[in-house]
Write a structure and sequence with these properties.
Elements lengths: L1 H22 L11 E3 L6 E2 L6 E3 L6 H14 L7 E5 L9 E5 L4 E5 L2 H17 L1 H5 L2 E2 L2 E5 L5 E6 L8 H13 L4 E8 L2 E2 L18 H13 L3 E8 L4 H6 L11 H4 L13 H17 L4 E5 L13 H10 L7 H15 L3 E5 L21 E4 L5 H11 L3 E3 L2 H4 L23 H5 L9 E8 L7 H8 L2 H10 L7 H18 L13
Helix pairs in contact: 2-3, 5-6, 9-11
Bound molecules: zinc ion.
Zinc ion binds next to helix 10.
Length: about 525
């Protein structure tokens, strides 16, 4: 018995040692870079008289970010001889090269954005190579890196549970570490309208919301971290909040008892009321002027057409004028007008991908999405069909399939605190990692969504996001040939340690460490 225990202990110890040597400075990298070479050779030593050369002006924010990284890992005033610069001969807006030898550290990027991504890698190298870092050394390494997909997004839902500006900033800080470059804010829903609209104070009167200056502050804060904020105002469903303020914008339904008893998501703005278009003309113009993103997301999901437009006298008149047999055909007219406003603001629209059925079999789009509309695939089981249709119709497609990318789903059955679960299925870390990214040219990236029904504050948002958001970050950044669950789970302990150091709430995925 004694002998057996000794044997097992040695095996475990040997296993850990081998892993540590194999991973070395890469042991906390999230996401894994496209190319990593670890040459043998002497380490670069930290000194108190290090010189940093750069193409950037000495007061550039990126140099402060670099300085903060050095200070955090090596202490005040300590650093290494380094060169940090934009290299205009490099292609790809986020392409960077990070090289460390015994003489110096060199970080070159195709753009300032690329340098920022490279600095995240440097931070993780120093964190993961803990013993070397503690002894004032940096291991030699050559990293050549660029993202597999241009858009890596997370979505917050302050409509359901409002998130104060400082909380959103903290979320931005953390997502930037994993090379995310888009934050979608779901600003309107049944439960609340969270963004000020010029000329319409009634929409936000007496409710928690972001003012124009809050938005300017957030957009600027995100931009300094090379993250774009995409605003979403959801229409024509998910509009209880606006209909509470403007009840006249809903459909005229003689027997409204059935509708009144419909659970959630029941009501829609009317397709046949010019006042709806007039209000949303103001909404879209106001949002377009506040956000610098070229995109506005207009929702388009879960419209209860049969319970609203199909029963509305005005909508039915509009149908017969156009010779329609199906009320869903009104979606083309409705979004035709809304998208014209989006285009007139110089912006592009994003919509959730809806098909002619909410389960398979589904054959076609719910409406005729114009080719300039980016679609987001989200419904469980419909992603292969959305991929096929988007490729055939030429729509850019963002991947947010519920079975992998819905970060509000519990991470394990019975997970504590399983807060307010309204029947959401489980998405484990391994399932999140297993998202399959199509290589088709119209697929622009990945988005993890944190729907807010059961996310009542920022700590809960972090707990649900991490570490699954690391898995999705790798799906969006790392080339398919370099993605590996086994590699990912071995980098997890180092990466989670960094979250712990920052005081970020996350779920420890114990099950991922089982053999
Ligand atoms: Zn109507």
């Amino acid at each position: 018995m004694f002998r057996k225990i000794i044997t097992i202990s040695l095996a475990v110890a040997a296993g850990i040692a081998v892993h540590a040597r194999e991973l070395g400075p890469t042991s906390a990298l999230m996401p894994m870079p496209a190319s990593v070479v670890m040459p043998s050779g002497k380490a670069l030593s930290v000194s108190d008289a290090a010189i940093v050369r750069s193409t950037l002006p000495s007061d550039h924010r990126l140099l402060s970010v670099y300085g903060e990284i050095m200070t955090r890992h090596f202490g005040d005033g300590a650093g290494v001889d380094a060169y940090i610069g934009v290299d205009t001969t490099m292609t790809g807006s986020e392409h960077y090269r990070l090289e460390v030898d015994s003489v110096s550290l060199r970080l070159c990027g195709a753009s300032e954005e690329a340098l920022f991504r490279g600095l995240q890698t440097l931070d993780q190298l120093l964190w993961g190579d803990a013993v070397m870092t503690a002894s004032g050394n940096v291991s030699p390494i050559i990293i050549d890196d660029a993202p597999a997909y241009p858009r890596r997004a997370l979505m917050l839902d302050p409509a359901r549970h409002f998130l104060p500006v400082d909380d959103v900033k903290r979320f931005i800080d953390v997502m930037a570490s994993y090379k995310y470059n888009v934050l979608q804010l779901h600003l309107t829903d049944d439960e609340g309208w969270r963004v000020a609209v010029e000329g319409h104070p009634e929409l936000t009167d007496g409710t928690d919301h972001y003012t124009a200056s809050d938005i300017a502050d957030l957009v600027d804060y995100a931009a300094q971290r090379y993250i774009e904020i995409v605003p979403e105002a959801d229409i024509p469903g998910h509009t209880s909040a606006v209909l509470t303020v403007h009840p006249g914008l809903g459909c005229h339904i003689a027997d409204s008892a059935a509708l009144a008893s419909a659970p959630g998501n029941g009501v829609m703005v009317c397709a046949a009321n010019d006042s709806v278009y007039a209000l949303y003309d103001d909404v879209i113009r106001s949002i377009a002027s506040m956000f610098t993103s070229p995109y506005i997301h207009l929702g388009g999901d879960e419209a209860a057409i049969e319970r609203n437009w199909a029963l509305c006298a005005d909508c039915r008149r509009m149908m017969s004028e156009r010779g329609y047999t199906d009320a869903a055909q009104l979606m083309n007219d409705f979004f035709g007008r809304m998208l014209a406003t989006v285009r007139s603001c110089g912006k592009k629209a994003i919509l959730w991908c809806e098909l002619d059925n909410i389960y398979m079999p589904a054959e076609k789009y719910l409406m005729e999405y114009p080719a300039d509309v980016t679609l987001v695939t989200w419904r469980n089981g419909l992603t292969p069909k959305c991929i096929e249709l988007a490729a055939a119709h030429g729509n850019p497609l963002l991947m947010a399939p519920g079975e992998h990318a819905y970060l509000d789903y519990p991470q394990m059955r019975g997970d504590l605190p399983e807060h307010n679960n309204w029947g959401m299925p489980v998405t484990t870390l391994r399932q999140a990692y297993a998202i399959e990214m199509p290589s088709a040219a119209n697929v622009t990236g990945v988005m993890g969504t944190l729907w807010g029904e059961a996310i009542n504050d920022i700590n809960r948002a972090f707990y649900m996001a991490y570490p699954r958001a690391m898995a999705l970050a790798e799906a969006g950044w790392t080339p398919e040939s370099r993605r590996s669950w086994d590699s990912f789970r071995r980098r997890l302990p180092g990466a989670l340690g960094r979250l712990m150091e920052r005081g970020v709430s996350f779920r420890v995925p114990f099950e991922s460490f089982d053999r």
